[in-house]
């Protein structure tokens, strides 16, 4: 994961407003157990592109790891409001992350 983190950081140095790379780095940071760093990046991605479902999903994952259940519910609602196909993936991902964190996230 450290190689991917380094790669995406380099991409973002060259293209700081690239939302796809911002999301990808955020996702890798979540996977690496760095949810606070991920949350900061993913907030930027969803601010730039409010309908970016994958970034909302990853932000929800980071927030579960941080124990921010209000934030998780907000991200879920953003996906449902957008009638997006990622909402089921978010629920599964958030549920898995919540299980690891020892919290319950209701759909």
Condensed summary:
This protein has helices spanning 2-14, 19-31, 35-48, 53-66, 69-81, 87-101.
Account of the protein in words:
Helix content is 77%, strand content 0%. The chain has helices at residues 2-14, 19-31, 35-48, 53-66, 69-81, 87-101. The longest helix has 15 residues, at 87-101. It is built from six helices and no strands.
Task: Please describe the structure with a list of short key phrases separated by commas or semicolons.
globular; 107 residues; 6 helices; disordered C terminus; mainly alpha; single chain; 77% helix
Question: How is the topology of this model organized?
Answer:
Elements lengths: L1 H13 L4 H13 L3 H14 L4 H14 L2 H13 L5 H15 L6
List how many beta strands DSSP finds.
0
What is the residue-mean pLDDT, rounded to a whole number? 78
- What is the structural class? mainly alpha
Radius of gyration: 13 Å
- The number of helical runs is 6
What is the beta-strand fraction? Answer: under 5%
Give the distance, in angstroms, between the N- and C-terminal Cα atoms. 30 Å
H and E order:
HHHHHH
Task: Tell me roughly what share of residues is in helical segments.
Answer: over 70%
Assembly context of the chains: single chain
User: Could you say which overall geometry the principal axes of the C-alpha atoms support?
Assistant: globular
Report the major sheet.
Answer: none
Low-pLDDT sequence parts: 85-92, 94-107
